[in-house]
User: Which sequence fits this backbone?
């Protein structure tokens, strides 16, 4: 096993400087795709279904000159059909980089510990680092710079919000988050994001009241109240998240023209209204588009060729 393989398993794996670099690389690739991964192979090792993640990785690799191999959930069975360490070592002999979409964070971490090639977390129950990169790329396109701008997340302290908070705090943003009691971010994420906010001149505020979080905010973000694997909790969560819907009344408390964000899929009428999602300030589908370029940048970075990308 090569010790030199660099992985992206958590947003905390990237420094603030590296995040900024990746956003610049992603923007450059979006302006002009460059075949810096000619002949390289990406394996998509998925234990959870996907629309955006699968297609965006495939399109990203095609733009970079590479190819993808998709392994469906029934073909994988990490730790069941075959030991995680065996799958990792076999694929290390076949391809150049792997994107793993699975359940527990410990699965992707164990996989990476046996992988001789770079591993990208394409979503776990704990984090979604590629989504966060796409989100910040989308805001950077609108604002030009991110430092000092305010972003409010309304909803569950889930994988999406964890990676978003870690990434935004690393870029000196004013990050607010409102969650019901019992649904806050894990303490480990709060501690890391707070440290990064202090280091990079940002701010992290955690509150219960969504009105307090959105007051004057320049971007408003929400996500589903019930994530994959939590379906049995859906009715309980719908009750607990009452009052956390991103609707016109809540958006009116934000800064004029505040941007509307959602990582999709959206449950319109639950965490967000159709009116807000379809408003002129919605950048939801820009976020989805930018998954391609954020992931292209991440793959190029992990394979050591991002510095070949020209503006």
Assistant:
């Amino acid at each position: 096993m090569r010790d030199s393989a660099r992985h992206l398993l958590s947003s905390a794996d990237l420094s603030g400087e590296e995040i900024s670099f990746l956003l610049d690389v992603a923007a450059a690739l979006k302006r002009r795709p460059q075949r810096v991964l000619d002949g390289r192979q990406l394996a998509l090792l998925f234990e959870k279904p996907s629309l955006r993640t699968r297609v965006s990785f495939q399109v990203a690799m095609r733009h970079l000159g590479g190819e993808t191999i998709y392994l469906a959930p029934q073909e994988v069975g990490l730790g069941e059909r075959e030991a995680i360490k065996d799958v990792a070592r076999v694929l290390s002999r076949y391809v150049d980089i792997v994107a793993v979409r699975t359940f527990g964070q410990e699965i992707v971490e164990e996989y990476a510990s046996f992988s001789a090639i770079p591993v990208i977390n394409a979503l776990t129950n704990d984090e979604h680092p590629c989504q966060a990169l796409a989100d910040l790329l989308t805001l950077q396109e609108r604002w030009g710079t991110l430092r000092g701008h305010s972003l409010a997340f309304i909803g569950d302290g889930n994988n999406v919000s964890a990676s978003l908070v870690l990434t935004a705090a690393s870029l000196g943003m004013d990050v607010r988050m409102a969650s019901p009691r019992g649904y806050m971010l894990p303490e480990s994420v709060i501690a890391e994001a707070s440290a990064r906010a202090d280091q990079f001149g940002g701010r992290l505020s955690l509150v219960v009241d969504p009105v307090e979080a959105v007051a004057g905010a320049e971007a408003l973000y929400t996500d589903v109240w019930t994530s994959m694997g939590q379906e049995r909790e859906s009715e309980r969560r719908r009750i607990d998240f009452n009052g956390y819907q991103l609707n016109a009344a809540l958006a009116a408390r934000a800064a004029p023209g505040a941007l509307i964000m959602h990582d999709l899929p959206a449950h319109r009428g639950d965490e967000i209204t159709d009116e807000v999602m379809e408003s002129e300030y919605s950048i939801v589908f820009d976020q989805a588009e930018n998954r391609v370029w954020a992931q292209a940048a991440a793959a190029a970075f992990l394979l050591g060729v991002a510095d070949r990308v020209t503006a």
User: Anything to note?
Assistant: The longest strand covers residues 41-46.
